[in-house]
Structure formats: C-alpha cells, structure tokens
Amino acid sequence: MLGEGILKGMAETAKNFFGSYVSKERLTTVEYPEVRIPPAENARVFPFLVYDGADWEAGLRCVACQICEKECPPKCILIDKSKDKKPDYVGKQQFYPTRFDIDVSVCMSCQICVEVCPFEAIKMDTEFELATDDRFGGLLLDRKELAKSNEYYHSIHPTEASEVDARLAEEKVKVAAKAKAAAEAAAAKAAAAAAPAPKPPAEGGT
Amino acid sequence: MAGKLDQIFILLRDWLVHFLPEALRPAAGVVLGVIAIVCVFPALFALTTVFERKGLGRIQNRLGPNRVGPFGLFQPVADGIKSLTKEDIVPLSANAAMHFLAPIVLVVTVFMGFAVLPMGRHMVLVDIDAGLLFFFAMGAATELSVFMAGWSSRNKYSLLGAMRAVAQMISYEVVLLLSAVAVVMISGTLSLPKIVEAQNTYSGIFPHWYIFTPWGLAAFVMYAIAGTAETNRSPFDLPEGESELVAGYHTEYSGFKFALFFLGEYLAMFAISGLGTTLFLGGWSAPLSILDFVPSWIWFFGKVMLSIFVFIWMRGTLPRLRQDQLMNFAWKFVLPFTLLDLLVTALWRFMGEGWMRWVVCSVILVAAYVIMGRASLTRKEIGPRSYRYAE
User: Fold this and answer.
1) Is A13 on the interface with B (CB under 8 A)?
2) Mean pLDDT across chain B, nearest whole number?
3) pLDDT for B27-75, tens place per residue?
4) What are the φ/ψ torsions at residue A12 (nearest 5 degrees)?
5) Do residue B58 and residue A16 have CB atoms under 8 angstroms apart?
6) Which residues, in sequence order, are bridge partners of residue A87?
7) A12 CB near a chain B CB, below 8 Å?
8) Which residues contact A124 (CB under 8 A, 6 or more apart)?
9) Looking at the partner chain, which of A1, A12, A29 has a beta carbon nearest the beta carbon of B373?
10) For residue B165, is pLDDT > 70?
11) Which domains occur in chain A, in start order?
12) pLDDT at residue B167 tops 80
C-alpha cells in the first residue's frame, strides 16, 4: 500500500534515534582530542630520522649519502654533507648530515625516501598533529626535529622495526666476522712477511 | 491559580500597559505582543537548529554538535556570531535593491502569519474574523520573496531553485488551502480562535479534535504533506537541493542575509505547524479534559514542537523527490484526494450525528486511498529501449 515504505523507514530511523541513547555500540564516534584511537601499524604521515642510543646527534643512522634527496619526487629534502666523518653503528667512519631539512608542506608521504635508504636511517612517522601558526618555518623540519629514537620507531611500527633491527644485527655480525677474518689474514700475512710495513686496519666493505 | 498561570502573558501585558495613559494603551499592548512574537519565535528557531542537528545525528547514530556549551546548546550563538561576522557579498550583476529586499520580505511576511495564530486562551495578537484567509495570504507572499531572491541574484542555480520553489509552492498551496477548507466547512468560521473553541469540547475525557474524525485525519495528512512541501522541507527540498543547485534560490547570499533566509524557512515551519495545530490538533486545548489545568500556551507550543520533531524525523528518513515525482504526486494524488475529502466532509456535515457517518466516511476514504495508491504505485512497463536510427 502507498506509504508503507515511508512508515518502515520512519520506524528504522526512530530505532536509530532512540537506540543511540541506549546502546553504546551504536555510537561509533570517537571524540577525538580527548579520546584517540592508536594509529594503525602501517599508518604513515611524514618521514623522520632514526637514531640509536641516547644522543640524537651521535646516533643518527644517516650517512648523508643523499640518495633520498635525489629520489624525492617533490624535492622536499635538503641535505648538507659533513666535511669530517664519525663512526656508524658498525664502527665504520662515515659522513653525517650537518643539515637535514624536510619541508612537510611539500612532502607527499610517498615513502620513496624510506624505500631507497640503504642505511635504514629514514622511516615514516605516524605523528599527524603538525598544525602550526607559522606555515613556512613551522613546517620546515630540521634534523633535530626529525630525529627520533629507535625505541620510538619500535613503539609506532613494532613489526617493521624488529625486522630492521634483525637485519642490522645480522649485518653487524657479518662485518665483524669479515673484519676478524681480514685481521687474521693480515696477521698471518704479517707473520709470513716477518717484518712488513704497518698496514691500515682492514675495513669491511658493505 | 491555574487560571492566572494560563493567562500569565495577558496579565503581564495588561500590568505593563497600565503605567501608560489611557489613550496609548491599545497601541502599547499590540506593540508588546509583537515584541513577544519577534523574540519567542527566533529563540525557538535557535533551539530548533541545534535540536535538529542533534536529532539528525542521533538518527544517523552520531552525536551531533556537543562542543559549544553544555550539550552543545550554545551552538546557535556561535552560528549567529559567525554569520554576523561574515562578509556580505552581493554579486556585481545582481539587482542590488531586489537582492537586499528579498530576505527582509521573506522574514516580514512569515512573521505576519503569526499575528493571527491563537497561541493560548485569549493569546492572539489580532483576532480578525478572516484570520485563516490572512494567514494564507501572507503564506503566499513568501513565494514572492523566494522568486525575488532567485531572480535578482543573476545566477543560474538561484533561478532554477526559484523556479522550482514557485512551481512547488503554487502546486501545494492549492492542497494546503483545500485541506483547510474542510475544517472551515465543519466549523463554519474563518476565525482561528473560533476554530480552536469549536474543538475545545470533550466527550468523557477525550477531545473533539478534527484529527479524530475520518475526514479530519485525511485532511490532516494532506495538510502535513502540503505543509512540508510549502516550507521546502525534506523530502520536498528540491528548491535548495544542495546536491544539484548549490543552495537553490539563496546561493548568492552570504552572512546575515543567508541567516535571514534560514530564519524565514524555520519560521515558516513554525507557522505551518502552528496552523496545523490550530486547525486539526485542537490548538491550545488539552489532549485530555483532566489535563486542563496545564496552561494552554504549553499545549500549543508542545504541539508545535512535536510537529517540528516530526519534520526533523522525516528529514532524517526520506530521500529527496525528483521534480516530476513531486509534480505528479501533487496533481495526481494529493489534490484529487483532498477534493474527495471535501466531498466526504460535506457528507459528514449532512449525515448528522450517529455511527453511520463514521462508517461511510471511513470506508470511502480508505477505499479511495487504497485504489489511488495502487494506481500510483503501478509503473508503466516501458520495456528495453530500442534505437531506430542509431545502431
């Protein structure tokens, strides 16, 4: 009969109207600033730089190879390479960035920098509350603002961070073994030559 | 005591007026009444906007606005400040005078309608004999403002919205008037307070409201449909269908002029609800004779707010009609049914007291409803489209 569908619809909406006061399951709204849903593990917003240890400046994994700067499609990364070197996580002497800026107003969150980085130094953050009243300086993050600890990385992407840690540890073992083998070879050589000229310590190439 | 509370506004007015010299008293009384109407209904409008948003939210299992003040009740204040501080933009090619006048004409004409509505026992601003006629005359004048707004904006969306609005309002105005005529046929008067008086009698504890008669129920349903269309409310909100026409006839309005259109729309809703209450729901009379001690104005405003709730409920439920569906529904279903209802009302009037007229009138109306509903629900089988030339 005419109007039957309307009554059915009205009953449905009335059920919703009164039901939303009674049952909590109906109200799926999360009242955001007070209540938060933890971000999904595969969430990504803008990149950040990972550092190991307590000191962010000493522990930065970045070696200023500038691959990410070159690969970045919108060109939002600016890196200045250092003149001197400092040891990286395996003890090898590496350059480090004296300046590492990301303009997040330009960044398009494509994750290409993360994919090309051979040093696991740049990762995607889940921090999204970046609103600022200074749209130029406030959105241009320097290396201090970008540096976040490995523990933080573990807290936002646990699975991925564990994989990265395992990979780095494996590499470290490999390098140590290689260095040891090289040292042994050098020692054997030295012993064989009896009195060779002092050689620089062997370095494990990666 | 109950009588005093019932007449509290009248007593208050008389007390305020008695400070003035004798000659000024009638004029001052009217001015006070106007001030009351101009304050109360916009306040109701402000409350309704927030309740509408909360109600629609609940219908969609959302919370609705709840940030400004306790439970979001100060939301209209925030909205008002926002619309006051917004830039008032008038298009360069618009007819500036018309563009400026349209929202004012709308609000003024809508407010005029409240003058004849009895909002409580003796609470009517001007008790004119042809109050119903006056109300409909003012209601029809709102179409003028809608068309002024649409035409003077020089915007295709505005014009399309205005064309739709006028087509729709004129079609449904006929139904609105005819369904009110049924009431006039029974009560024999055009005066709204007298129509309420006629319904303010009881058998036992049950009232003699016109909605509790077969012809009254049918007329009320038709009045409700036409009233929804007349106030451009969903599902008949084609004139401002925001998915098609940006905002319809008030596309080119911003700031407080836009707020005035919004106010006009809601005031029209109050007016239509108020008139529906007066004609069919017994106006300010209590729903049961034992509840008579509650002040009459509480009943009137309670019934109006209940109708507003139904408006909101419908808005949360029904999708918008298409233009052809709207017109077909008006001219092929609602209008014939209302005309039939007029005949039934006449039959009711001349069959005299007794159960016979209940049976006869109900049977006629239900049968007509079923048959016409069947007819309008069956679709023509058109079959697959064939292309004669463009294969």
Assistant:
1) yes
2) 85
3) 888 888 888 888 888 899 988 988 898 888 888 888 888 888 788 888 8
4) -65, -45
5) yes
6) A93
7) yes
8) A44, A45, A46, A47, A48, A109, A111, A114, A157
9) A1
10) yes
11) 47-163 (3.30.70.3270)
12) yes
